[in-house]
Amino acid sequence: MLDMDQGVVEEWLSEFKTLPETAIPSYAAGLKDKASLVSALYRVIQEPQSELLEPVCHQLFEFYRSGDVSLQRFTLQFLPEFIWSYLSICTSRDLHSTGCREALLLGIYNLEIIDKDGQSKVLSFTVPSLSKPSVYHEPSTIGSLTLTEGALAKHGLSRVVYSGPHPQREIFTAQNRFEVLTFLLLCYNSALSYMTSASLQSLCHLSTGISICGYPRQLLRKYKGVSNRMPVSSEFLVQLITSLYYALYNGEWDMASKALDDVLYRAQLELYPEPLLVGNAIKSSLPGGALKSNKEGTRCIQVEITPTSSRISRNAVTSLSIRGHRWKRNDSSENSIDIPDSAALSVPEISVTGVLGERVGNGETQRSRREGEAQGGQDSGADSRADSKGLAEVRRQKSCRRVMEDGITSPGRVQY
Fold it and tell me: What is the pTM of this model?
């Protein structure tokens, strides 16, 4: 550790002790801008035998116990590095060097499982549903879920998952180690949007190290570090994948994508279904064409937001359009029948036997002749004969249209 870094850390340790309580909020707000202090603290945590490690852990615990949100987030950004250093020391069987790290991790855990009144917390999570709106979709755009949304809102079938109450821990054991670490990662994920780039890189380093150390992939990657295998739980890997999903789109695409592959590699070796399901779902949702990067290296998901106002397509079939279609059809039929001038009618040519030409049924001709004779017997003028011919033509057109629509020909109309 450089003397300059040591001086920065020592100044930080002494500065907080002399602060009055009224100056703590302004002091906490300015900590995130001290990049040199953050890098120096990372070097202290990475050194197993650093003299400043114990006072640093004590100071960070005081930050978390103060209750100030900014100070708690400042402590949480070092959580992945503390977890990695703690697990690395545990695999090397050097348990005497884990005292202050273990105390800090257990202290944060015991503070998080209780509320302000000292009662055990019970965390609740609502399972996402396609029938409820989110930043990714709107139920109104999915037509088949319209009735389902109303049914769920009526019966209140939203599924809620509860976590807790969690017991307090005074020491790490092989049975409760990953139970505590998984809960700590859950607290870290709840403040992911406030984590710095250095914290996300430390998270990727933790995910890769815990997944490939002691396995053949460590040799292929030429990864230097712990050579022993680290035990891991399925729930812990799921929390890692959740963190990596955020890191993918917030400036750490390369490191996070490699770390995600390493976590899936470890999940396959352990045959853990939950991390395999979550990790493969994330990988399937990351096509190369859907990513857009800017100058800062951050990436975003391209989501097409639908308008909030409901719109009906012009081609949509509604009851009004059906009624309008019927009215148009009836009007066209009446207009085609009620034409007084027979010269304006165009009779289509129908070939029943396959021979082109106009064929008229014998029965219809005889009926027309009889009607014409009866009409001529009553009215002897040329105008009355024209009217009878026009009526016969209209009936003939109706008969032809009926033949075309039904496809059935009467025996009297077929000519051989």
Answer: 0.66
